[in-house]
Amino acid sequence: MNDGSSADVLAGNLRGELQRYAPGEKLPSSRDLRERFGVSPATVSRAVAQLAAEGLVVTRPGAGAFRAQPSAGGTRAVDTSWQQIALTAEDQQHAEPAPRTVDASGIVAALEVPPPGVIAFNGGYLHPSMQPEQALSAAFARAARRPGAWGRPPFEGLTELRAWFARDVGGPAGGITPAQVLVTAGGQAALTTALRALAPPGSPVLVESPTYPGVLAAARAGGLRPVPVPVDDDGVRPDLLADAFGATGARVFYCQPLFHNPTGVVLSAGRRRRIAEIAHAAGAFIVEDDFARRLGHGGRLPQPLVVDDPFGSVVHVSSLTKPTSPSLRVGALVARGPVLERLRAIQVVDSFFVPRPLQEATLELVGTPAWPRHLRAITTGLRERRDAVLAALHRDLPRLAPGVRAPVGGYHLWIRLPDGTDETALTAACLRAGVAVSPGRPFFAAEAPAPYLRISYADTAGTDEITQGVRRIAEACAANGVPA
Ligand SMILES: Cc1ncc(COP(=O)(O)O)c(C=O)c1O
Predict the structure, then answer these.
(1) What digits encode the pLDDT tens for the residues 89-135?
(2) What GO annotations for molecular function exist for this entry (predicted)?
């Protein structure tokens, strides 16, 4: 069990026991708790800190932890019903173009840690065993000692880090300059900034169908209207993209040309230029979400669209979370022309800048020989997991497996379910069988054309867990009458 989850378990136990102590009474010492629960000192202090943050416990340095006194107002329930009106009333008065409710469920689903014993075929990040934990810790330790580590960075990001992203995105031919890079707090923040910069509330934004639920949520939270454009085995369909621009007058197209989430498709060489021309003819920007570039399974990768962008239409998004840890929230926007200033201004207004220690630590991480080694290790780790999940599918789900594309990068399989399958019921049955999978519905901006499941293999411990996970899906299919 990692320290975070054992601290959660200990905090849960202590929470249940708090009633045994009078307000103000001292709780057992750290040593008592360690011995009783068989946990480390770090676990005890994290659990106690958790309870202190919830206001249940107070800590006094040198004296220990005490049950908190109830606050003067007690836990008086406040009548907050008025908020329901306040949060929507303006929509009516000012004819808000889109409702202001924000639906984070699609994102939360990818970040949720499944209950103990449940295999995480729904995770959006690397399993802890594939994360570069040691290299990250060492990088942070060195970063903390860098002169000025806690000072204010330039708004656009540290010059050295911008130069690294320029080389990383542009490749050795140097298609990108550091001045065209804006350091961001990961990919999601970059997407929000880009959408806000490029499209006013109420306007349409074209998205691939299916697509990443996080971009649908971000667009809707910004008052935009996502309009789906179908994807086939070669990526987005150019004929339908042109139609969608014509029908909506959209000025933004969001796409993932490499290892598309959820289908795993790579935009074909033949379509790259065509897509750029169609967007340019519509006077539109292309937001290129290059989230999975470092998750290839071996083999040559096409360049990012932004590198040979003939019109300056591409706003490129990348992030280091996927090949490291969801907590290394550092990414970059790359663009050309006046849009750069708009992106920069929006980021400054929203969040000032990305914390300097995080930027310094990133430089420390990517500058060591451990970095290319780590990238090679995840290539192998992901390829092995992909092979294991495909083999298990062919063994245990022989009717579904033939229709599943073997991805050459990314971390997921997109499985077409038989017509009429109730995705929600099947996903719930999978969870009961001990495996968390993602239903297809949240990946569609409008009605889904068919039922799907996404199986993600990045957040799995290895082959045995994958074999077991697929077996559990097969059990759930059988229990739900899904011919699989
Ligand atoms: C397609 C895609 N883009 C962007 C992101 C955002 O990632 P992050 O904010 O961790 O960089 C995700 C995360 O799942 C994703 O799947």
Answers:
(1) 766 666 556 666 788 877 777 777 788 899 999 999 999 999 999 99
(2) DNA binding; DNA-binding transcription factor activity; pyridoxal phosphate binding; transaminase activity
Nearest to 291 by CA among 414, 187, 412: 187
Q: How many CA atoms lie within 13 A of 48 on its CB side?
A: 24
Q: Do 258 and 399 share a domain, yes or no?
A: no
What is the CATH number for 257? 3.40.640.10
Same domain, 298 and 332: yes
Counting the structural domains of the chain, the total is: 3
* 455 beta partners: 413
Looking at 366, 382, 401, the residue that finishes a domain is 366
Provide the residue range defining the domain that includes 445: 105-124+372-479
- What mean pLDDT is predicted for residues 264-284? 97
Tell me how far apart the alpha carbons of residues 267 and 236 are, in angstroms, rounded to a whole number.
7
Q: How many angstroms from the chain centroid is the CA of residue 235? A: 21
Q: Which residues pair with 120 in a beta bridge?
A: 436
User: 222-242, pLDDT tens digit by residue?
Assistant: 999 999 999 999 999 999 999
Distance 164 CA to ligand 1 centre (A): 20
52, 67, 82 - which closes a domain: 67
Q: Are strands 314-319 and 285-289 parallel, antiparallel or unpaired?
A: parallel
Phi and psi, residue 401, nearest 5°: -60, -40
Rounded to whole angstroms, how far apart are CA atoms 39 and 48? Answer: 13
- CATH assignment of the domain containing 29: 1.10.10.10
pLDDT recorded at residue 173: 80
188 lines ligand 1 (CB under 6 A): yes
Confidence band, pLDDT 50/70/90 cuts, at residue 73: low
Ligand 1 atom 11 nearest Cα:
187
Residue with the two structure tokens 């086939």: 232
Q: Are residues 469 and 419 part of one domain?
A: yes
Dihedral sign, CA of 26, 65, 36, 13? positive
Q: How far apart are the CA of 145 and the centre of ligand 1, in A? A: 30
User: What is the domain-level CATH number for residue 406?
Assistant: 3.90.1150.10
**Distance (Å) from CA 291 to ligand 1 centroid:** 6
Q: Are residues 438 and 293 in the same domain?
A: no
Query: What gap in Å lies between CA 347 and CA 378, rounded to an integer?
Result: 31
Region for 174 from its dihedrals, namely left if φ exceeds 0, alpha if ψ lies in -120 to 50, beta otherwise: left
Looking at the structure, tell me whether residues 390 and 471 fall in a common domain: yes
Same domain for 54 and 203: no
Pair (461, 447) in one structural domain: yes
**Does the CB atom of residue 264 touch ligand 1 within 6 A?**
no
